[in-house]
């Protein structure tokens, strides 16, 4: 082939390419070009935090969604406004879109402690007006899993169904889990026996705690408020009261933090409603008085009476108020609940026990005041069967002084290592002073981990240790599953629920969880894959957070029928003259424009 022929063929090839490239380029844009034209808009409803800007999660998502062709209206509102559009929506149902008085999407965080309750959030009967299902999420599959989860009394089955619920939500995406934040407790580096999960949620007593050579433990805490155990809601109150009072059952880390016997030696049921309970025949109160089933009945009945007569929600525990008690003998009784009341039915037995011989003559409307008076004047009245009892309460400075219960070993077989425990409210201490006191041995424990949340753990001196605590919180992106695009898909270009699911998946892959967690306050923020917190016994650790992938997000929108332009990240083809010239150079340096030349 002659040189002229080769050049002619090259020109023809270039011509063909130049004609072909534009056909490829009909829907191409460059990565550095502006965002594609929005194919629809959604509102993101987010609480007004009272001054600071919205959360980094909301701002990040509001920036990323337009990159895939979803327009965003950011709606920063107060909680009353938000409640009236979500779980407090007055009806009629379903909850409509934001423009119609409801919501499209909603940025919200949950805190669960050890008990994640998916039934109230996702079951069909709990759609707002009857519960908290403002997601309006309804499928036969999730309802079946939720029913099994709440009805089983077998712990292994509960874990199975809890994992199954998370798997369904992971695949169906009725909401988008975004982040979870672990906490920590600072303490003497030689302290042993502390279980961070139990302690953080006020479930652990300190009989197994120890620091070599020490007989005292000094802990800095928040303000003391409630001295009557059935009225205590505050974390720091529950911590010291939990050293005094026991329940029939307790959380046990050896069985995944589900319930095991405590004062009870056994509790059995076939239906989660009626329990036969045997109590330890050696159990005695801290003054040496034997504990029997009449004390148990008195404690349960007092809880019910307070609730019904004073209309008070008692303690932070989940307690049923309608039940009957049949005392079989001094150490055996039967407790029958009218309804389950709670998705963990055995938790109805988790009622603090108080001594009937001390409290039986105190008027029901004077219980809290009497507890405070006894704390000041006769603290030995504040006794339980726990490892410690109240020895002294000083109002100035505010100090709770507990002493070892000499009768605790009689029924538990355990002699607490510490003789004295001091819970000290020290309002003048700053974080720096608390850390200095902990370093110097003046304090052994800083209970309020939030107050030292900015602490650089890697820089702590050797005398200060810390215990990490699995998160009980999840920040999520809630979705209105009756929204015509996000929920039912009825107005998607390819109409139907499958298209709505594609849209939710698109949004899921547009959430940059890694960046969000880096930007959030605190040191221990992790991307979330499930709405169940890590603190829960049923947490499904096999699920991994959705990958941040804007191209995959766009592909899901295309599956729903939306016309989303492709994105070429490295280079464009057949678009600009510089690119065209470069291609010619690659073909053989043929960059001149042919012209007619006369001989």
Task: Summarize it.
The chain is of the alpha+beta class and 599 residues long.
Overview of the structural elements:
There is one protein chain. The protein is an alpha+beta fold and 599 residues long. It is 29% helix and 20% strand. It is built from 17 helices and 21 strands. It has helices at 3-24, 56-64, 79-83, 118-122, 140-151, 155-172, 196-200, 235-241, 293-310, 356-359, 367-377, 408-412, 431-440, 497-509, 513-519, 550-559, 577-588, and strands at 28-30, 40-47, 70-77, 105-111, 175-181, 183-188, 216-221, 249-252, 258-261, 264-268, 274-279, 323-329, 332-337, 388-395, 398-404, 420-425, 445-446, 464-469, 473-479, 525-527, 566-568. The strands form 5 sheets. A 7-stranded mixed β-sheet has the order 14-15-16-7-17-6-18. Strand 12 and strand 13 form a beta hairpin. Helix 5 (140-151) packs antiparallel against helix 6 (155-172). The longest helix has 22 residues, at 3-24. Mean pLDDT is 84; it is low at 1-32 and 569-599.
Judged by helices, strands and strand pairing, the structural class is alpha+beta
Distance between the termini: 24 Å
Q: How many beta-strand segments? A: 21
Q: Biggest β-sheet: count, sense, barrel?
A: 7 strands, mixed
Strand proportion? 15-25%
Low-confidence stretches: 1-32, 569-599
Average predicted confidence as pLDDT: 84
Number of helices: 17
- Largest sheet strand order: 14-15-16-7-17-6-18
Kindly state the percentage of residues in helix.
25-40%
The radius of gyration computed from the alpha-carbon positions, rounded to a whole number of angstroms, is 32 Å
Morphology: globular
């Amino acid at each position: 082939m002659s040189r002229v022929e080769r050049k002619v063929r090259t020109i023809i090839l270039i011509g063909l390419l130049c004609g072909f490239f534009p056909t490829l380029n009909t829907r191409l844009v460059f990565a550095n070009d502006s965002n594609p034209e929005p194919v629809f808009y959604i509102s993101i409803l987010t609480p007004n935090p009272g001054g600071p800007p919205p959360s980094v999660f909301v701002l990040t998502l509001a920036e990323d969604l337009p990159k895939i062709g979803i327009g965003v209206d950011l709606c920063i509102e107060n909680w009353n406004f938000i409640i009236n559009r979500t779980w407090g929506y007055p009806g009629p149902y379903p909850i409509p879109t934001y423009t119609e008085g409801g919501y499209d999407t909603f940025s919200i965080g949950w805190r669960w402690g050890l008990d994640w309750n998916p039934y109230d959030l996702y079951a069909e009967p709990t759609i707002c007006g009857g519960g908290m299902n403002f997601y309006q999420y309804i499928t036969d599959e999730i309802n079946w899993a939720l029913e099994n989860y709440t009805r089983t009394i077998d712990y292994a089955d509960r874990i199975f169904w809890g994992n199954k619920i998370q798997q369904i939500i992971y695949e169906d995406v009725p909401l988008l889990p975004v982040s979870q934040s672990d906490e920590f407790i600072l303490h003497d580096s030689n302290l042993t026996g502390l279980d961070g999960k139990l302690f953080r949620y006020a479930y652990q007593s300190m009989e197994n705690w120890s620091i070599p050579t020490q007989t005292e433990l000094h802990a800095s805490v928040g303000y003391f408020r409630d001295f009557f155990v059935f009225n205590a809601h505050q974390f720091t109150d529950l911590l010291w009261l939990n050293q005094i009072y026991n329940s029939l059952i307790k959380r046990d880390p050896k069985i995944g933090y589900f319930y095991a016997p405590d004062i009870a030696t056994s509790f059995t049921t076939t239906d989660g409603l009626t329990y036969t309970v045997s109590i330890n025949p050696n159990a005695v109160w801290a003054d040496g008085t034997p504990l029997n089933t009449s004390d148990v009945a008195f404690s349960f009945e007092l809880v019910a009476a307070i609730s019904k007569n004073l209309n008070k929600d008692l303690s932070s525990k989940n307690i049923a108020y309608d039940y009957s008690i049949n005392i079989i003998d001094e150490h055996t009784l039967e407790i029958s609940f009218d309804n389950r009341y709670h998705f963990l039915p055995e938790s109805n037995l988790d009622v603090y026990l108080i001594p009937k011989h001390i409290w039986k003559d105190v008027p029901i409307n004077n219980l809290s005041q009497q507890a405070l008076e006894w704390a000041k004047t006769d603290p030995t009245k504040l006794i339980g069967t726990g490892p410690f009892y109240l020895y002294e309460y000083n109002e100035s400075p505010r100090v709770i002084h507990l002493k070892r219960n000499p009768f605790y070993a009689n029924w538990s077989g355990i002699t607490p290592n510490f003789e004295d425990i001091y819970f000290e409210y020290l309002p003048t201490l700053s974080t720096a002073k608390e850390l200095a006191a902990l370093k110097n041995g003046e304090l052994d424990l800083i209970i309020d981990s939030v107050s030292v949340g900015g602490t650089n753990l890697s820089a702590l001196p050797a005398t200060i240790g810390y215990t990490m605590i699995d998160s009980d919180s999840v920040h999520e992106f809630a979705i209105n599953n009756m929204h015509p695009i996000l929920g039912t898909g009825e107005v998607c270009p390819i109409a139907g629920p499958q298209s709505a699911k594609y849209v939710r998946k698109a949004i899921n892959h547009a959430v940059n969880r890694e960046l969000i967690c880096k930007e959030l306050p605190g040191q221990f923020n992790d991307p979330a894959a499930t709405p169940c917190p890590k603190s829960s016994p049923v947490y499904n650790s096999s699920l991994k957070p959705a990958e941040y992938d804007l191209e995959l997000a766009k592909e899901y929108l295309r599956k729903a029928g939306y016309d989303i332009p492709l994105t070429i990240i490295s280079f464009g083809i057949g678009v600009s003259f510089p690119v065209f010239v470069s291609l010619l150079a690659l073909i053989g340096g043929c960059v001149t424009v042919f012209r007619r030349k006369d001989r």
